[in-house]
Amino acid sequence: MRRALVLALAVACSSAALAQQAEDDDALFRPRAVGGGPAIAFVNVSTITSNGGGATGACVTPNQSTTTGNHLVCFFRHEGTTTSVSSVTDDGGSTWSTPAAAYVNNADAVMAGMVYAENITGNATNNVTINLTATRAWFMCACAQYSGVPATSSLDTAWGASGIRTGTTATNTVSFTSGTTTGAGVVVCGVSNNNGSTVTTWNDSLTERLDGGGSGEIAMGERIVASSTAIAPSMVFSNTTAGAGVCMAFKD
pLDDT of 102-150, one tens digit each? Predict the structure, then answer.
C-alpha cells in the first residue's frame, strides 16, 4: 500500500512538472504584441468645454484624472474662418504636439482640430488649455486618455500622411480615406457639426467614447487593433448638417 502511494505521488509530481514546463515553453514562444509594450487601452475622457456663442481664444478641458506615462488626445472645434493653435498647456506640464495637418475646415466654416501629448505627467484634476491665435465663437474641446502608447514617436505614419487624416461633409456623413496601420495600435477620431446633431453610427468598428450632441457638438471615438489593419473611419450624424473631423493613428 505504502509503495503504491509513493508511486502515485511520484507520478503526480512528474505530471505537474511536465505541465509547468509546457506552460513555460508556451510563454517563451508566444508571439508578443507589436511594439513589445503593454497593449493600448482606453482610460477615460473629459467632459466637453464650450464657450457658447461668445468669442474666445482659449478652451480649457476640466479636471480630468490623468496618470503619468499615459497619452492624451484632445479634439477641438470652433466656427468662423481658419486660425491656428498658438499653444497647448496642461497642469502637469506635459509636452504637446500641434500638427498643422490635424486642422481642417469645411465649406460651412466648421473648424476641427486635434492635438496630443505623449508620456504625460499625471494629475488628479488635470486641465488642458488649447490657445488659438485669434478668438472664435463656439470654441469647444475634450480630451481622451490612453495607456500603452509609446512615450516617443507614437504617430503611425504608415496609416496616413504623418499619421493624420481629415474629413469634411456638407450632408450627414464624415468619411476618412482608408489606411493600414503598421501593426498594433489605435486610431482616435473626433468629429463635429454645426447643428447640435449627435453621431448615430460609428462605422468600421469604431467605439464611441463621447458624444455631446445638443450644444456639445463634439464626438470622439477610437478603434484599437492588435495587428496591421486597414481602417477607413466614417461617422453618421442624426440629421443633415455640415461637419468636419480629424483622425490620428498611434502605434502600440
Answer: 999 876 678 999 999 999 999 999 999 999 999 999 999 999 999 999 9
Q: How far apart are CA 162 and CA 149, in angstroms?
A: 17
194-238 tens-digit pLDDT: 777 889 999 999 999 999 866 558 999 999 999 999 999 999 998
In a domain, 168, yes or no: yes
What are residue 162's phi and psi, to 5 degrees? 60, 20
- Whether 154 maps to a domain, the answer reads yes
Would the pLDDT of 69 be above 60?
Answer: yes
224 contacts: CB under 8 Å, gap ≥ 6: 39, 40, 41, 42, 185, 186, 207
Q: What is the pTM of this model?
A: 0.84
User: Domain total for the chain?
Assistant: 1
How many whole angstroms separate alpha carbon 128 and alpha carbon 47? 12
* CA pair distance 113, 168, nearest whole angstrom: 12
Query: What is the number of alpha carbons within 13 Å of residue 46 lying toward its C-beta?
Result: 29
How far out from the chain centre does Cα 81 lie? 26
* Residue 179: inside a domain: yes
